[in-house]
Amino acid sequence: MGQLNIHMSPAFEQKLRRFMKVRQIKTKSDAVRTAVDEALQLAQKTPTVNLRDLFGAGKQLPQRPRKSWLKEDDLWGPNGH
Questions:
Q1: What pLDDT is attached to residue 70?
Q2: Distance, CA of 49 to chain centre
Q3: Helix/strand/coil for 38
Q4: What is the DSSP letter of 80?
Q5: What are phi and psi of 29, to 5 degrees?
Q6: Alpha-carbon gap, residue 81 to 73, rounded angstroms
Q7: How many CA atoms lie within 13 A of 67 on its CB side?
Q8: How far is CA 57 from the centre of its chain?
Q9: How far is 46 from 43, CA to CA, in rounded Å?
Q10: Which residues, in sequence order, are CB contacts of 4 under 8 Å at separation 6+?
Q11: Which end of the chain lies in a sparser environment, N or C, as judged by fewer CB atoms within 10 Å?
Q12: How far, CA to CA in Å, does 22 sit from each of 33, 58, 60, 61?
């Protein structure tokens, strides 16, 4: 692959220098390579989640044998308050 020229914002450059200092990397190009390699490894390890697997999961829960309130008076009281 050829050379990669990028324009860095001051905030990105500050983060890159901090990354270089923490990892003891001497050049920006090595730091970018390391960050890309680590991001790729992380992306490959992260399992994908299929939310369709959860479809109907609530129906598998046991239902309550009776309602909490049998009559409206049990909920509001005999005077309706």
A1: 64
A2: 11
A3: helix
A4: -
A5: -65, -40
A6: 9
A7: 6
A8: 22
A9: 5
A10: 32
A11: N
A12: 15, 47, 49, 49
Strands of the chain (E only): list them: none
Residue with tokens 């009281």: 77
Sign (positive or negative) of CA dihedral 29, 32, 36, 42:
positive
81 is written with which tokens? 């308050």
Q: What global pTM score does this model have?
A: 0.54
pLDDT tens per residue, range 41-80: 988 887 777 888 887 777 777 666 666 666 767 667 666 5
- Give me 3's structure tokens: 């050379």
H or E element in which residue 32 lies: helix 28-45
Q: Give the CB-side neighbour count of residue 44, counting CA atoms within 13 A.
A: 6
Sequence-separated (6 or more) residues with CB below 8 Å from residue 27 = 20
Q: How far is 24 from 9, CA to CA, in rounded Å?
A: 22
